[in-house]
Design a protein that fits this description.
The structure is a single chain. The protein is mostly beta strands. It is 10% helix and 47% strand. It is built from three helices and 36 strands. The protein has a five-stranded antiparallel sheet with strand order 7-6-5-4-36, with no helix packed on it. The protein has a four-stranded antiparallel sheet with strand order 3-2-1-35, with no helix packed on it. A four-stranded antiparallel sheet has the order 8-9-10-11, with no helix packed on it. A hairpin with a 2-residue loop joins strand 21 and strand 22. The termini are far apart.
């Protein structure tokens, strides 16, 4: 039999190699990393809000009186012009004209989900907006989907089909058509946890957890609660003036003993305060990083903020200081950009997980949510 021509043989080897690269790249996420385009990063310059790229270049000039972070799912961010909120795309173009009094894309909502180690950006094409004193939902074109009629709203985070909505002084849960599926009856509530199918709900001064039918799966008995941690599937609960942890069945798996609300990160370590210092425990309650820091943040991208003396640095999940304490203030590492905002003197810049400056300190503020007024 005739030998195969060498060009065909080389081509066949190249094709096989390409197939192997595709398989490996798909399995390891290599292609996702190469193709990933981080969202613009929110900064404040003077009294205006704008956006930079991961190299520090201003790609959307500071022009907004207030603005929110970009949602990586729909690639839009809320922005305020002339006292009204609209939505911009990653070029800075207003794709939904300013017409709303407010949006939910704010610091409070972001930090609540960040402290639970959760993705705080909804992936369903809806955005909560406030108009004439009431809240409703619009789609990415700005068209009203649910008429503004509620006194308070959460976004539809995770894959939830229900979200808390407030009518008068009571909170219930609505579907994406704006219909109450669980009637208003609670004094407060948080969104459902995808992982355990429960939502924290408050009756009087006590918190418990309800199921999707609105029935209490864990009776109201706690002074305060957190959402369930994504990795641990535990919720922090406050009994008296101490914090402990329950599982989805309501079993107290770690007795109340901690002096501040614990913080969940994107790994299985939980930040807890004992006395006046912070350390990190696993879901059994065993300290993996002994209490020693005056302040900490939750783990993100394998790094957690810690305060040593009057300065901030970062540790890894073994407790080793990998970025020495040197900053006047810091933010946790952002899973979208891979960077953390850090403050030196009165200027903010951004570092990578190795502590190298990606953007030198030069901005007035590096923020989750930007209001144009200058901070002290």
């Amino acid at each position: 039999m005739d030998r195969l021509p060498r060009p065909w043989l080389y081509g066949g080897v190249a094709v096989l190699a390409l197939i192997l690269i595709v398989i490996v790249g798909t399995q390891t996420g290599m292609f996702r990393s190469l193709l990933h385009r981080p969202m613009p990063i929110l900064v404040r310059v003077g009294d205006k809000c704008g956006y930079i790229d991961t190299a520090g270049n201003l790609i959307i000039s500071p022009q907004f009186d207030a603005a929110g972070p970009f949602n990586p799912h729909n690639r839009m961010a809320s922005a305020q012009v002339g006292g009204k909120m609209g939505f911009i795309d990653t070029s800075g173009k207003l794709v939904v004209p300013p017409q709303f009094d407010n949006t939910v894309n704010d610091k409070e909502a972001s930090l609540q989900f960040a402290d639970a180690g959760r993705d705080y950006f909804p992936d369903n094409g809806l955005a909560a907006v406030k108009q004439n004193g009431k809240w409703g939902f619009v789609d990415t074109s700005g068209s009203i989907v649910v008429n503004p009629q509620f006194d308070g709203l959460f976004e539809f985070f995770d894959d939830n089909r229900l979200t808390p909505a407030k009518s008068g002084k009571e909170t219930g849960f609505i579907d994406k058509a704006g219909k109450f599926v669980i009637n208003p009856q609670f004094d407060d509530a948080t969104p459902f946890d995808d992982y355990v199918g429960l939502a924290a709900a408050k009756i009087g001064s006590k918190w418990g957890f309800i199921d999707m039918s609105g029935k209490f799966a864990i009776n109201p008995q706690f002074n305060d609660t957190s959402m369930f941690g994504e990795k641990t599937h535990l919720a922090a609960v406050k009994v008296g003036d101490k914090w402990g942890f329950v599982d989805k069945s309501g079993n107290l798996v770690i007795n109340p003993q901690y002096t501040a609300q614990p913080l969940f990160g994107d790994n299985d370590l939980i930040a807890v305060q004992t006395g006046s210092v912070w350390g990190f425990i696993d879901k059994s309650g065993k300290f993996k990083i002994n209490p020693q820091f005056s302040d900490v943040g939750p783990f993100s991208l394998g790094r957690a903020m810690v305060k040593v003396g009057n300065e901030y640095g970062f540790i890894d999940d073994t407790g080793k200081v990998v970025i020495p304490a040197q900053f006047d203030d810091v933010m946790e590492f952002d899973r979208e950009s891979g960077l953390a905002g850090v403050k030196m003197g009165d200027r903010w810049g951004f570092i990578d997980t190795h502590g190298r400056y990606a953007v030198n300190p030069q901005f007035d503020y590096a923020v989750w949510y930007c209001h144009g007024e200058k901070s002290s």
